[in-house]
Amino acid sequence: xxxxxxxxxxxxxxxxxxxxxxxxxxxxxxxxxxxxxxxxxxxxxxxxxxxxxxxxxxxxxxxxxxxxxxxxxxxxxxxxxxxxxxxxxxxxxxxxxxxxxxxxxxxxxxxxxxxxxxxxxxxxxxxxxxxxxxxxxxxxxxxxxxxxxxxxxxxxxxxxxxxxxxxxxxxxxxxxxxxxxxxxxxxxxxxxxxxxxxxxxxxxxxxxxxxxxxxxxxxxxxxxxxxxxxxxxxxxxxxxxxxxxxxxxxxxxxxxxxxxxxxxxxxxxxxxxxxxxxxxxxxxxxxxxxxxxxxxxxxxxxxxxxxxxxxxxxxxxxxxxxxxxxxxxxxxxxxxxxxxx
Length: 341
Prior knowledge:
Blueprint: H1 11-62, E1 69-70, E2 73-78, H2 90-95, H3 112-117, E3 133-134, E4 137-138, E5 142-145, H4 185-188, E6 228-232, E7 253-254, E8 266-267, E9 282-283, E10 303-308, E11 313-317, H5 322-329
Parallel strand pairs: 5-7, 8-9
Antiparallel strand pairs: 1-2, 3-4, 5-6, 6-10, 10-11
């Protein structure tokens, strides 16, 4: 009598195989995610490298670094406009009109400019983040260094005296490689306001703009390799969070008043923000003790990418000390950097 030959698997054997496969997948997924994030961070660093090289090429051509914002402040263009020809985006640059206009002409979201600011540029987008827009205008991930205090580029609290660039009681402004909303009289007196309206509607200020003065390399006395040029922010989500809304002056830069990925709030005066996506705290109310600012943030694990003014790119950990972080942001502070970055 012949023996029956068993074919297939028993239920127990199938369950064992499935369990083994599940364990292998569980072991493999973190490794895959780690490789994917490593590749995304490498692309992010390459983007910052391109921005740094473009800024250096702009300096070679124009004699100064890029303006952080146009001479007319928030709304007639930011550094993302004049950098366009240097990142192989000449058609977009030629489409944009009235950069720094001293009139009531097109702003960043008007006319043909809206097509430019509605374009998502890979060079300005970190693949680790979630692409977002406010209306039809794109948020991006890279911003320029406005120094160690606020976008007003004066001391914090406004009007204090006798401080230092790293002080937590009176933080003096130690210079920055890019200009923003610089020292209106109300700020010097300790008050707080939005930048002056330079449009034709305000004839007294329509003679010449005061914002965004471009800096020469010679003004970076701390050394190019000791001064940050650009870093990252997370794109605000939900259609009403303007963080990373870098076609607009109030979100086109960062300050080092708080450390990377700090839980301190961003201050987006004149715009909107939310924390629905788990983003850091934010407010739209600028005060003398916490004026307008946007801090550095990323979705990378443990830190942020930065480009230095010599064109190099570095990953800075979240645990960098506040004194070292602020010192890295100043261009004329004269500080001795710590070794924690």
